[in-house]
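Internal QA ticket QA-208
Title: Verify multi-chain structure generation after dependency bump
Assignee: T.L.

Test input:
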Amino acid sequence: MLVRILLVLLYVLISSILRSQSLSIDYIGSRVEINETHLQPPQTAGADYAASIPLNQGAFVSVQGVRPRSNWCLLAYHTEPLQGSATLKITPDLASVPQENIGTNTPTQLLLQGQPQPLFSGTGPVDQLFLSFTLEHAHVSQNVNTSPVYIQYQLQEGGCPPGP
Amino acid sequence: MIRRLHILKIALLYCVNSSAQTLWSEQSTHFDLHFEPIALIAVSEQEIQLSPGVNTTAGSPAFIDSIATTFHLRYTISPVKPNPQLVHSVSAPAGLSSRWLSAPFLPASGTCTLAPSATHNETNQFLTTAIYGHSGTAPQNGIPVTVQISLSQSEYQNLDAHLHLFNLTYQCL
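Actual output:
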């Protein structure tokens, strides 16, 4: 009986915590164009896409409803891989938020994978954290038409674990 | 009683450990990555000299039976169609007989086969042969396509200009 009461209390506590924090991701645009100017060299017959293409895309991250000194970790992963061997790299702009909001073990960049990976380690509420995106290893022969990029973001209590 | 305390201990341990990695919130997002179709084709430009370096004892130019030059074809084509093809056209100057040769090649991505060698019909009309195969990207240094020019002595003597152009045209279909 004591165990049940304890677990119910814990459930209520965790549920109340889950309801209070909010995570918001706002992309600058809903569509990113890749064309012959992204070849290396640009607009050159026989050339392939540059190994690394900074995308004309960005995102603003807002984390609200957390206590001022509480640590958290923002993680990201893709739910569907990109076409071919292309990958996506996300880089948090550490200059876009006050220094006191940056936690320990903040990664400098994240290569998007199928499993959640740390993207940003924060402290307290954060508004307008900017993320930039880079497309890597795209090939003309593999990447065609329109390809949706599905990214799942997770806000987790506690700072990010140390990187490798 | 001891068993219940043991279960309570495990439950508390689980709660304490998991609280360090509690998932507060989660958001699903997406944006579209649109790759515009690309069709870039280029041929290297070359200049070859047909003038002979040797004269006969009678003072007339030595007979030149053939001379060849190699152009380099480069292309970057998005595989947006299932069966794309390149059309290769050669326009020879008047008074010249020519044929062009091409070797099958295997680009870095996929397979591509050039059409077999063909001979100009000697009426100075366009010679059009299709390059069928996989679209994709070619090596930056290009794919060699050789144009071989055959001259008879009378043809050579009838050349009335110093510069004759072979126009190589590629079209992506």
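Spot checks passed. The first helix of chain B runs from residue 2 to 19.
Status: verified.
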